[in-house]
């Protein structure tokens, strides 16, 4: 129970708030979620899980600490909701130049990279010089994770649509407000970035997630693909733009081809702090904060929810790298 003996109030039902709610539910800890009921990057995210990322072809930060626990979490929630959430799919990492491939090839046999390598010479689309196939990839259906979880918690009286602002906390708030909280200077200097994503329909192959040329193309079934994404640091709105659409259309043409139709266009704001790492802790009002999941929230949210629950309920502090105070000292 919270310090005043009442249920914890989880503010925000994005990835962070939803994962924490499932964690509390599994521990029979009383809680209620308060959510505005719209917006947020979790509702529009592609849910891409990629073990080796970026231009430098590096393992995702601390992936060995988070990967298995995250997948196990989503599979447990799948069973609870009777709906598939985790869609494993190999990744085709594409190199558009000899220079890029040289950088990738130099890391293929490193221990932290080799464990994720399935094939170093798979077939690849025209326009790319080489490719490598990665295991461990896939996507979380974040939209349905949020939506179906909301229904589950609402039916049990554990979710309320509303605004907590101005109401007393008593130290029982757990603020999981994502980008909106960071933009309001809830923690400190932020690096939130707007991203736009297209859903398109085409007869492209659906055997792999394709990553290359600064973008990705993710099959989601029934000849539908999600394509993204953009990064915009200055105009932080949740509205799609013509400029963003044109950038993503170019990615779609490069990774897929020229024959497709646009089905949907969405935008969201990634909650990012300076080191692009999730953080936990308390603010000056003695309320807890769980935020800054960034663009890889599907990977990090489940275990961070476990760590925060351990800290709140058992007094077990996480590694200092994950604590707000050490981040800003």
From TrEMBL:
Pfam families, alphabetized: DAO (PF01266)
E.C. number(s) listed in UniProt: 1.-.-.-
Single GO MF descriptor: oxidoreductase activity
Source superkingdom: Bacteria
Keyword match Oxidoreductase: yes
Keyword Oxidoreductase set for record: yes
Name recorded for this polypeptide: NAD(P)/FAD-dependent oxidoreductase
Originating species: Luteolibacter algae
Taxonomic classification: Bacteria, Pseudomonadati, Verrucomicrobiota, Verrucomicrobiia, Verrucomicrobiales
């Amino acid at each position: 129970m919270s310090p005043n003996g009442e249920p914890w109030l989880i503010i925000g039902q994005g990835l962070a708030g939803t994962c924490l709610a499932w964690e509390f539910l599994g521990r029979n800890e009383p809680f209620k979620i308060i959510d505005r009921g719209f917006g947020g990057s979790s509702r529009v995210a592609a849910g891409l899980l990629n073990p080796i990322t970026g231009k430098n072809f590096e393992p995702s930060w601390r992936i060995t600490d988070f990967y298995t626990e995250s997948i196990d979490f989503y599979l447990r929630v799948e069973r609870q909701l009777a709906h598939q959430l985790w869609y494993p799919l190999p990744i085709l990492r594409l190199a558009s130049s000899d220079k890029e491939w040289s950088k990738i090839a130099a890391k293929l046999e490193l221990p932290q990279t080799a464990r994720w390598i399935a094939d170093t010479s798979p077939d690849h689309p025209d326009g790319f010089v080489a490719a490598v196939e990665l295991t461990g990839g896939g996507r979380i259906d974040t939209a349905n994770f949020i939506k179906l979880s909301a229904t589950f918690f609402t039916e049990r009286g554990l979710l309320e649509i509303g605004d907590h602002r101005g109401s007393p906390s008593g130290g029982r708030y757990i603020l999981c407000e994502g980008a909106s909280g960071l933009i309001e200077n809830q923690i400190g200097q932020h690096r939130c970035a707007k991203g736009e994503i297209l859903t398109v329909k085409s007869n492209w192959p659906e055997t792999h997630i394709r990553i290359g040329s600064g973008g990705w193309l993710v099959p989601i079934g029934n000849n539908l693909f999600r394509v993204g994404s953009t990064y915009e640091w200055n105009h932080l709105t949740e509205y799609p733009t013509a400029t963003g659409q044109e950038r993503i259309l170019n990615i779609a043409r490069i990774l897929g081809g020229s024959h497709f139709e646009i089905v949907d266009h969405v935008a969201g704001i990634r909650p990012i702090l300076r080191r692009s790492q999730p953080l936990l802790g308390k603010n000056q009002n003695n309320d807890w904060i769980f935020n800054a999941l960034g663009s890889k929230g599907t990977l990090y949210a489940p275990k961070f929810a476990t760590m925060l629950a351990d800290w709140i309920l058992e007094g077990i502090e996480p590694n200092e790298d994950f604590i707000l105070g050490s981040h800003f000292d």
